[in-house]
Amino acid sequence: MRKRDGKKNVKVRTPQSAQESFSHEENTQVETLTEEEVKEIIEKQENNQNQLDEAEQTVAKQKSKKKKISNLIFFLINIAVVVGILVYQLLTQEVMPLATLFNSGFNFWFLLLTLVIFGLTMLTETARTSILVKHTSGKWRPFLSYKVSAIGRYYDVITPLATGGEPFQILYLKNRGLSAASAISVPMGRYVLAQIATILMCTIVLIVATTTDVVGGVNVISVAFYIGYGLNLGICLVTIFLSVSKSVGKKLVGWVLKFLKKIKIVKNYDKQYNKVLKVVSDYQTTMQEYAKAKGKFVLLLFISILQYILTYAIPFGIVCFFLGWRPDLFLQVFIMGVMIEMAASFIPIPGGSGVSELSFTALFASLFTEGTLFWALILWRFMSYYIYIIQGIAIIMYDYFIGNKKYSWLKRKWELEAESAEFREQKLKNYQRSKNKLKV
After folding, report:
1. pTM
2. pLDDT category, 37, cuts 50, 70, 90?
3. What is the C-alpha separation between 324 and 239, in angstroms, rounded?
């Protein structure tokens, strides 16, 4: 091969798929690369290892006794807020007794509808993860994709600003046989797609909310929604800008972090600088991958938007439970659900505890009368928060008693299949050699 840019050519072995590590002995090809390209490959491997180390540290911190106590405190705060709202409503207005609720003639099939919608949200999220796993590792692993999705949602709702899901997903995928590159790529792809879908849908909600009277006039919740939308949009645009223009981006990141350090917001400049650049680099790598598979990107984006719509359609099922079938309220309920989530998105408390409940009470008070508002709040909070905790704990318990053992057997099966394939290939080569000798 011709030398490029006057650089010395180096022969290196590279894997054919993302699932295969560079130390693997099978299915490899020899390419002649320049020293710069070799350095780039080594740098990527080092970055992957650093991210795995960071994920392990994050997981270790989350599982520490101190973190468990803080999570328990936040959980109790969430319950205290709900109790506080109940007491307030008991003092200021009537709350329907639970016995009356069950005998009121409400259509409980609509509660089943909310569970079906929740199931569809997990189905779409699992489908998205499955496609990402297949794209990066070359294998369809739907049950693993479901567990990764469920665990991601579980740690998102119990960590501030929903930042806990990705590290746990990276480590979980790595421990389930994916290479470091694949284990990092899947959660990053999920993050990028979710960000794009969120910005697109929130922009539509913003336009509808400001040009119509669907949710009433300007209030505290709508202002909080605008702030949350602005912050999320700003983060998304800055990340894209930094990914497109690395040289300018590095300078911009440096200036901003130096300013934040000067006003005592950032303590460790070097650590934060490297962290931001890693996110930008991963974002850029992910977008480059999608650029090579535009059809797959469109499909994944469609699935992400569908999953977003289904998530915020759940409150509509709760509304129908109390008010009957009211398709005319779907758009209003959907917009209010998005506004509540976005208003709580920049509050550094797990699950937006407190803000979410108060926002729901303020926005939905006009729809629920005759003492049903509190029960609507309980049902909505269960479907938007507690159900993810229950699902996540169920997956963790399943793995502890069954899943880990099953994977050990599956891993051994793959190893035996690989050994068998290698044995057959060696036998075929030996036969071919002996055949050639006979011809000679």
Report:
1. 0.79
2. low
3. 44
